[in-house]
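[job 0417] fold request received: tRNA-specific 2-thiouridylase MnmA
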Amino acid sequence: MMSEFPGAPTGPRNGSRLRVLAAMSGGVDSAVAAARAAEAGHDVTGVHLALSANPQSFRTGARGCCTIEDSRDARRAADVIGIPFYVWDLAERFREDVVEDFVNEYAAGRTPNPCLRCNEKIKFAALLDKAIALGFDAVCTGHYAKIVTRPDGSRELHRASDMAKDQSYVLGVLDERQLAHAMFPLGDTVTTKEKIRAEAERRGLAVAKKPDSHDICFIADGDTQGFLARRLGTAEGDIVDTSGARLGTHNGAYGFTIGQRKGLRIGTPAPDGKPRYVLDISPVDNTVTVGPAEALDVVALTAIRPRWCGAPPAGPGHYTAQLRAHGDDVPVTAEPSGDELRVTFAAPVRGVAPGQAVVLYDGTRVVGSATIAATERRSPAPAG
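[job 0417] inference complete; emitting structure tokens
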């Protein structure tokens, strides 16, 4: 299955003609992106990233993007487009930088986003570095985001023209150098998934009707808690309210996220009869604290390891922030300070968990992102 690329493609560089490496997952978006890049006159080579050491022959439902079936779908699409195609084995790098990071973050009581980590460490680090070393000018993906080139030649990352499909949040980890070598052919036009599928069908791409992948690609059955239990084992702990009263037990604090309501298995109702939510996860004593929804109100946060899509802000400024892949924009004031970022919300927000990414926007432009380390709540949570 694995084959190493023997060298960079040959061909003249005429005007804006670029040597492009198209990352092809086997899905419809990346196939159409590669086709558009080729149609634009670029010298395109397709590559499928083998990210699983033991890929399944067939996907489970619509989940996953690393199976043998996906590799074959990508190869067939490349054949139709008429571009060379290779498979690169990045399974070990993916295991270390994405899967192990995911497990370790949950074990520490945090909630990671593996898609951001994959974009940062795999698609626009390992893959891009290898592509540049082989003489390519750009890496092309099927992400819905837009790159704007300024008069001075610098590049900015912006939201996709179609806000319903925008994926700029998971690309907020890209720095200026990576943006200089990125290409997102799907982000410049207002489109829908139905139109992309129709375009794929017109182009003769068999993936036109292929289901989208969902959830986490390396957890094929979608059972995140089961995956973590197999990796971390089970350990019974207490579920308590904010007064410390024991309400129930669990099999591992890693199975919970801040703001979670379902699956708490608390036998006794709250005194006020209202639902309770996860407020805190303590891996040290394996305790999960629950309480009312209003106790989730966050007014500020501190984030670490900021990554800027261009020059970092010189001081405090007013922005909007997105806190999850499909979350809404919220107005904030943000101030970078060395390796930290302080974000203050104009109005309290809920469901903010350490380990998640906060991505800052100036209008549609992505300013940068950072990993949430701590949150500040509006007031101490009442008991219950």
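[job 0417] notes: Residues 234-295 form a domain with the SH3 type barrels. fold (CATH 2.30.30.280). DSSP finds seven helices and 17 strands in the chain.
[job 0417] exit 0
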